[in-house]
């Protein structure tokens, strides 16, 4: 999840395929190749869209063994797990716990006053090119998404892995510690030296996720009968 051409997820999907696990990557509405408008918040809607994808493949008789998301996609898979309890493995790669943070860096100072005045803020890149529009409604959606409550609502039967780079320049690594503190059945791995894109650490990330999704079988004790 989170841009199907995201190299992180492309590499992981290839590794899963080599391990005999089918992987399906897709873009949420307004992301990558999907139609529609990009929404700054929209977390609940993305969890509902994910529900539609899971339901479709379940109807096609696929066994959904895990959901994986990077960045905002990490938040989507966690929110899904808190709302629906039918997938028992979740991998959150660099999701943001404190959704109220990181906004000023994207929208600029006094964003609340400006968006109340104009009803929207247009986000542009460093070259001044328009990227997307943030409406007051989408900003409220982000600020009203309760990550603490949703984290605590994930069932103990759901295994969750959070992977985060220690040098993440987009989402601070302390957010990963917050997920670890509040999700009932949680494993945490901080990749030392990795940024938000895991540049130079792609193989380590892929191995961590793959081992969590499809654990290697333990060697049988010589004292136990072999079946």
TrEMBL record:
<feature type="domain" description="Serine aminopeptidase S33">
    <location>
        <begin position="11"/>
        <end position="155"/>
    </location>
</feature>
<dbReference type="InterPro" id="IPR029058">
    <property type="entry name" value="AB_hydrolase_fold"/>
</dbReference>
<dbReference type="InterPro" id="IPR022742">
    <property type="entry name" value="Hydrolase_4"/>
</dbReference>
<protein>
    <recommendedName>
        <fullName>Serine aminopeptidase S33 domain-containing protein</fullName>
    </recommendedName>
</protein>
<dbReference type="Pfam" id="PF12146">
    <property type="entry name" value="Hydrolase_4"/>
</dbReference>
